[in-house]
Specification:
Strand order of the largest sheet: 5-2-1-6-7-9-8
Distance between the termini: 97 Å
Order of helices and strands: HHEHEEEHEEHEHEEHHHHH
Mean pLDDT: 89
CATH superfamily of the largest domain: Vaccinia Virus protein VP39
Number of domains: 2
Low-confidence stretches: none
CATH class of the largest domain: Alpha Beta
Structural class: alpha/beta
CATH topology of the largest domain: Rossmann fold
Strand content: 5-15%
Radius of gyration: 22 Å
CATH architecture of the largest domain: 3-Layer(aba) Sandwich
Number of strands: 9
């Protein structure tokens, strides 16, 4: 009976991930949008179809919401979770985001409730990439997911770590690209100036993907279809940040800009040589 039950769970998992069923994320709440979840499953499916026993690394696991399908997938041989477990962390949106009850033990307990999950394949590091080195990892990951501190500086640091740790033909993915886009831009500029071949694209809603070398997933049919529709992520990102434009239109902000322009003009005039001022 136990073996039959296990087969039923596996058959169900196979059919659900093949259809990119976001219900695989239903057991642990997360901040990802429905399209984010489909994109994560598409990347997951691409690797499980192309790389037997692939290794997944995640920076910023919180309660394990994005690990649910991976923990239940026997084709995923190893999960590496890196999270210093802060009680709060800064963010490019200008405020401190709290993370109450943020512990490794709580994450593992929640993941144990996921049908078919094998938490014993998860290795955790309660440290940040500012103190951890890639040599401390048990193996090289094929797929890295960066979803830690949402500041440009931290994203660049996390990206450097992943680019050093990941396999030559691996993949690095950034969540919330609409927030940390300047950090991602810095990473892309560095890669462009180097000799490591890469291919980058956006998946809806806000996943920025960097395929490295001859990464095998880019030709998977489900990903090609998503990439062809990546305008969805582009528009979503702009609309998500649209409140900044609306804020700039407010009368008090227009008045502040008027004063700022006047002060800048006055400062430039004072900095000019006296001969020019007399003229």
């Amino acid at each position: 009976m136990f073996l039959a039950g296990s087969c039923d769970i596996m058959d169900t998992f196979e059919s659900r991930i093949a259809s990119l069923d976001i219900g695989l994320f239903e057991h642990i709440p997360s901040q990802s949008t429905p399209r984010d979840k489909r994109s994560l499953l598409a990347l997951h499916l691409g690797f499980r179809q192309q790389v037997a026993g692939f290794v997944y690394l995640e920076i910023g696991s919180a309660f394990g919401g994005s690990l649910q399908a991976l923990a239940a997938d026997p084709v995923c041989a190893k999960i590496i979770s890196i999270d210093p477990r802060p009680k709060a962390q800064p963010d490019e949106r200008g405020k401190l985001f709290p993370y109450p009850d943020n512990s490794t033990d709580r994450m593992l307990q929640l993941l144990k409730q996921v049908p078919g999950a094998k938490v014993e394949k998860i290795q955790t590091f309660e440290a940040g990439t500012d103190t951890l080195t890639p040599s401390a990892l048990p193996c090289q990951p094929n797929l890295c997911f960066v979803d830690g501190e949402h500041t440009d500086r931290a994203v660049v640091r996390d990206a450097h770590f992943c680019l050093s740790a990941v396999k030559k033909d691996g993949c690095v993915v950034f969540h919330d690209a609409n927030i940390v886009y300047r950090g991602i831009q810095a990473v892309i500029e560095e890669l462009s100036q180097g000799k490591r071949p890469f291919h980058a694209y956006l998946l809806p809603d806000c996943l920025f993907v960097i395929e490295l070398g001859a990464c095998p997933i880019g030709q998977c049919a489900h990903l090609r279809e998503m990439i062809s529709q990546n305008y969805e992520g582009y528009l979503w990102s702009l609309l998500e940040n649209d409140h900044f434009r609306e804020l700039a239109k407010r009368p008090i902000m227009r008045w502040a800009k008027f004063i700022d322009d006047k002060m800048n003009g006055f400062a430039k005039r004072l900095s000019r040589p006296r001969s020019e001022l007399r003229a």
